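Risk register update: the risk that structure generation would not scale has been downgraded. Supporting records follow, first protein first.
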Amino acid sequence: MKFYLGTHQPSWLTRMPGVPLMLSHRRLASMRRLPIAVTRWALDSGGFTELSLHGGWTTDPVVYGIAVRRYQQEIGNLDWAAPQDWMCEPHMLRRTGLSVGEHQRLTFQNYLRLREQGVPVIPVLQGWRLADYLHCVDLYGKAGVDLTAVPLVGVGSVCRRQHTGEIAEITSTLADQGLALHGFGVKTSGLGRYGDALASADSMAWSLRGRYLPGCTPSHKSESNCLTFALIWRSRLLQEVGQR
């Protein structure tokens, strides 16, 4: 399994060869001068924050697609980008006023639009129950998108319920269908439960934990953005899940 260390710091792309990173479009979008990556990385669209703040996407897909191509060209080493997907947690549905089915349709349509622009975007499955995710697979299939033929398929709306057996059932069922899955925001408990079903995963759990720890140097108020702390956390995590 390939593990992407989530970070708020674009400069880390220039400092950690061999450590795959995950950065958000929301962090990169306003930068006039972008870093040149010495490691592989993936782009998070920032969907959870976008929907939480606005109840929908305020960024046009064409604008997002242009930004992704800029990152691909100027930063380099971009593995893939997440689409402008729509999460399906109950509180998110209340925020948008839409149904699970509508969130799935919007996620699917955005993937198609970005793919038409030549953006290295991965399809994402959204849902809440297992039946929702299977319906989402069918949605792609009916449009001629063979999810078993793409390099990676994201699984959304899982990061806040990883302690549940339901997520393990969802991921194992999807993996058994021949899908190479990426888990968004997977924590240690989640990797222990269903890591074997994933081709890749990302997490920023280290930053949340570090927020409540005193900084390791006088310039650090906490460890929430500390490179050393993040690398130690990553090393321990990979050891716990049996990775090299």
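Supporting record for the second protein:
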Amino acid sequence: MANEAATQVREEVEEIKVTTVWKDFLSVIKIGIVNSNLITAFTGLWLAFYFTGEGFLENLQTVFFTLFGSALVIAGACSLNNFIDRDIDHLMERTKTRPTVKGTMEPKRVLWLGVLLTSVGTLSLLMTTLAAAVIGLIGVATYVFLYTMWSKRNNTLNTVIGSFSGAVPPLIGWTAVDPHFHVVPFVLFLLMFLWQPPHFLALAMKRCEEYRAAGIPMLPVVHGFAMTKRQIVIWVACLLPLPFYLFSLGIPFLIIATLLNVGWLTLGLYGFKMKDDLKWAKWMFVYSLNYLTILFVAMVICAID
């Protein structure tokens, strides 16, 4: 009986270790970011099939390599971000439990994990088109070098610069099917690019003191909430005309997209009357998450023949 109990304890300990390692891995690759970006990559892929007349089921190989490659490239970039930011992550509440801060994953392992994931992801994208692989690498380079290593620590334009990499996934999805220029992927890129500043600036308002403690010059830290609120509203207003460039998706999509844009702009303008800036920032952040999901799911549904 004693041996049986000891064996059971060892098995439970091993199970806990495996669970911890898996959780650390998901934390390092920022699985939430990977999942949300896969939605936009899939939308780009789906719309490319729709507008080029290609069949989805007849191109499942392209679908697999595109989504698999996109996921790995994004995960690789996030891992590299974790490696670089390990010196400031302990200063922020939302990042102080990362494996690179707790010491449960060695920095070198995180670095090589990022390199490996990026490399395998790029090879996977090469199985579709060269354009998709190149765009994926541009996204990684922008996120790692221009955002994480440079602008994030030096100027308030860091949010805008980081938006370039966040707008890449739908371009990867589209070019994996059609590497030639088309207005649709360009509009998808603009949608993602314009969506990110109000989304992340709202988050920066919520976490303002954490960013201040970490020495990160986010807009609300340097110029205050009033300036940040004006910037957010301007970015949201810029989204208003974009759905009309996707009129081919039909009237239902235009109605849904316009209502989402008007609703977000209305909430943004209401912020100038609210006294509780942090509560307004929370509302804007939550709205932005739902906005992105609903908008891109609507594109996919409206493009179903």
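Residues 2-28 form the longest helix (27 residues). On this basis the risk owner (M.S.) recommends closing the item.
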